[in-house]
């Protein structure tokens, strides 16, 4: 059951819906919706700690959750996506509640089925805004979601590509500047290789979501192997046109 908690912060979409953006916020749903209201922001859905779901904006409207963003060349992610906020006290830096993830999976499956969203277009806020945002966080259960076809996870095959920047770009990340390459590499780890991501106080995380020395990732063999694996999964989806 979904409870309506309308927020007035939306406008008309300029693009058809083809993406799902997952967020986390360091508040429960009531506090989180109050904060969205204060900041004049919104999301389509908010999933509370216990799995209760609130809808703030109608899916056919453009909610204001992604901000300055980039994925696969698109920069108006608000226009082409549905945004879901997931309540989590440490911004995705510790285990998520079972009931909450079960409710989220059910919600995502319903949206994906109705809107025909490809696994390659299911992203975290940190994937589309790696220089600004850490959410949904390093402990978000992407693998569990991918088992339900909600997003991409590892397979048994690897891309033969060795150019790190090219792979990040072909997956979807912004690689337009040295800074965005470093931030995107760290965002990739937050999603696919969380042991390379350090746990930080929420306040610090919100101010600056990647460390200064994260360029060392670009030559890390485990990072490159993981990137080659995930790159392959994206290539497969690209070829099949899903
Ligand atoms: Zn977010």
Q: Summarize this, please?
A:
The chain has 242 residues and is α/β, with parallel strands linked by helices. It is built from 9 helices and 8 strands. It has helices at residues 29-39, 77-80, 98-115, 125-128, 142-146, 164-171, 178-192, 202-207, 221-240; strands at 2-4, 10-12, 19-25, 45-47, 53-55, 61-63, 81-87, 122-124.
Task: Describe the protein in words.
The chain is an alpha/beta fold and 242 residues long. It has 2 domains: 2-146, Lysozyme-like (3-Layer(aba) Sandwich), CATH 3.40.80.10; 164-240, no CATH class. The chain is 38% helix and 13% strand. It is built from 9 helices and 8 strands. Strands 1-5-4-7-3-8 form a 6-stranded mixed β-sheet, with helices on both faces. It has a two-stranded antiparallel sheet with strand order 2-6. The protein binds zinc ion. Zinc ion binds at residues 23, 125, 133, 135.
CATH uppermost class of the largest domain = Alpha Beta
* CATH architecture classification name of the largest domain: 3-Layer(aba) Sandwich
Helical fraction: 25-40%
Assign the CATH topology of the largest domain: Lysozyme-like
Mean pLDDT equals: 95
Compressed to H and E, one letter per element, the order equals EEEHEEEHEHEHHHHHH
- Alpha-beta content class: alpha/beta
Number of strands: 8
The CATH fourth-level homologous superfamily of the largest domain: Peptidoglycan recognition protein-like
Main-sheet strand order equals 1-5-4-7-3-8
First-residue to last-residue Cα separation:
30 Å
User: What kind of sheet is the major sheet?
Assistant: 6 strands, mixed
- Sum up the overall morphology in one term: globular
Counting DSSP H or I runs of 4 or more residues, the number of helices is 9
Rounded Rg: 17 Å
* Ligand roster: zinc ion
Question: How many individual domains?
Answer: 2
**How large is the share of residues in beta strands?**
5-15%
* pLDDT < 50 runs, ≥5 residues: none
């Amino acid at each position: 059951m979904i409870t309506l908690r309308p927020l007035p912060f939306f406008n008309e979409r300029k693009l058809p819906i083809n993406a799902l953006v997952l967020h986390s916020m360091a508040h429960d749903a009531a506090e989180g919706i109050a904060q969205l209201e204060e900041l004049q922001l919104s999301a389509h859905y908010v999933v509370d700690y216990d799995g209760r779901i609130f809808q703030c904006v109608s899916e056919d409207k453009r909610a204001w959750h992604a901000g300055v963003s980039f994925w696969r060349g698109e920069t108006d992610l608000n226009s082409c996506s549905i945004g879901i906020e997931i309540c989590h006290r440490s911004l995705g830096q510790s285990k998520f509640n079972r009931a909450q993830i079960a409710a989220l999976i059910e919600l995502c499956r319903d949206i994906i089925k109705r809107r025909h969203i490809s696994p390659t277009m299911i992203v975290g806020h940190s994937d589309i805004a790696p220089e600004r945002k850490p959410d949904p966080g390093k402990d978000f259960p992407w693998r569990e979601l991918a088992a339900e076809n909600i997003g991409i996870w590892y397979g048994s095959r690897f891309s033969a590509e060795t150019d790190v920047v090219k792979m990040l770009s072909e997956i979807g990340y912004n690689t337009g500047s040295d800074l965005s390459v470093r931030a995107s590499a760290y965002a990739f780890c937050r999603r696919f290789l969380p042991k390379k991501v350090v746990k930080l106080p929420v306040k610090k995380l919100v101010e600056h979501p990647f460390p200064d020395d994260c360029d060392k990732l670009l030559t890390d063999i485990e990072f490159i192997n993981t990137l080659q694996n995930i790159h392959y999964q994206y290539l497969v989806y690209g070829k099949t046109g899903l």
